[in-house]
Amino acid sequence: MATFFIEQFGCRATQADAAAIERQLRDRGYAVSSNAGSANVVVVNTCTVTAAADLQARQAIHTIHRENPSAQIVVTGCYAQRSPEEIAGLPGVSWVVGNSHKPEISRLIAEMAPLLQSGHMGEFVPVSAIGSGRFTAGPPVSAGPGLNNRGAAKILTGDVQQQREFLFAPVEGGESGHTRPVLKIQDGCDKRCAYCVIPHVRGRSRSLAPDRAIAEIRKLAECGAREVVLSGIDIGNYGRDLTPRTNLRDLLTRVLDETEIERLRVSSIEPIDVSEELIGVFAESGRMAPHFHMPLQSGSDRILAAMHRWYRAEHYARRAELVRERLPDAAIGADVIAGFPGETEDDHRATLALIERLPLTYLHVFSFSPRPGTSAAEMSDPVPAADISRRAGELRALGEEKKAAFQKTQMGRTERVLTLNRNGEGVSGPWTRAISGNYLDMRVSGAWAANRFVEVRIAGVADNHLRGVAI
Questions:
Q1: Percent of the chain predicted with pLDDT > 70
Q2: Residue 125 and residue 439: Cα distance in Å, rounded?
Q3: Where in the sequence is the domain holding 422, given as residue range(s)?
Q4: Is residue 167 domain-resident?
């Protein structure tokens, strides 16, 4: 039986894509391998949000090819959509499949098996051949230096901006080792932030129909999932493309009313979409995880305008304060970019000052990385690398202070936590990793099976983790 392995990078939306690919390959009779080194086919699902993400993917491809030279490497995801020719030239890569054709991967692998065996790995496969049961050779793909030993990789991409269908495959609990399955309910983005390449590689915003989302959550619950994470590229834009038009708040209300899922978590959501009505859904239900991840990016109004963000610092601050007023123990996280072109020390200090006074509980800090095709990549007045590094370090240090301060407020509280897949042995005996509704990473006393809700008392901090004592 042919085996496959998925090497995953990037956000929760790409995790959901990986789970969908896994499901499709399983349905075609492929078995999951325990690692890339023993798989017949390795799917590398890439991110391209930063240059570091691109580098990480290239390094992974080199490692996979070195350790498993006979494996067929299929590269997909956002990097594959943005720069397919660059990836096609890497040693070991057989196919590059953009986001525009990601749902075709399982069929592509199955139908190209005879071509693989015939040795025609350097020939181009036209999109029209997918699903025909045969492939027609065409002109070779231009792939630059360093071709793999089977010839140039084949490229399958299209105009992702023309994609109107919500590309979706069922995601069932337990796939890819996830205790908390991720369900993608929205893809693409209609916004054009100056630094962000994602709209160019994901296409326009499109949503999973509410009835389909509810059916999938029911299925996940029936398969044993206790918590489901709803993800999207711009999840706050959910439903605006559908007929009849709907929104995220109404979907959450329906899920709570029509399914038995015990905990529902929402991934990153833009601050402009965190309305009082949406916060009310979280505050009034004991099944919504009290967790809001709202990208900030900068605390300087001047830089926010240059970034083409559609809010200003005080607008963001009010959203965070509304969350804290209604949900005193909620986790509130933020993304921040250090060193956007033209950012001065005054701008940086404004960001530090805003974060210092906001009720944030953690930060994700990114050093600015120019992405080809974005307006920021063409901006003058770049910030020196040394200044970017220093500013990012100061932001991360402040993020750790905010995290520690939040943890301190949680001491002595009782929380219902969900056990995860990792266990260990400490000075006080065995422990099990768990996560609370308000996103506290915790080590719970005792050896617990994964995917169980446990009531714990938060008793202290050990190795940068909160320690929970089961009660």
A1: 87
A2: 45
A3: 414-470
A4: no
